[in-house]
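Researcher: Next entry in the queue.
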Amino acid sequence: MEFSFKFEAGSKAFCRLISEKAESQVRQLKSELRDIQSQLCHQERIFARIEARRQGRTLLECELKERLGCLGSYQCANCQANYSAVDNQAVEISK
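Model: Structure for this entry, 95 residues:
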């Protein structure tokens, strides 16, 4: 009986250590993925600006004076007009 209690406690401690390590790795990978997605979004914006200029379009100036336009959930009206095609493609790809 005493052995089974020790084994159960050891088993629980081992499982807890394994799950904590896995959760830590998941958090780290999610953080790395956010960084990669941010870099990808930045590169997409650069490509969209180059492509628009190549096609002879004039891009509207960002209302917040950001060089590549508003990044993140909020976008000014000018950036929405400039990048609507790029952002729509990104949403379709991620679905």
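Model: Residues 2-54 form the longest helix (53 residues).
Researcher: Noted, moving on.
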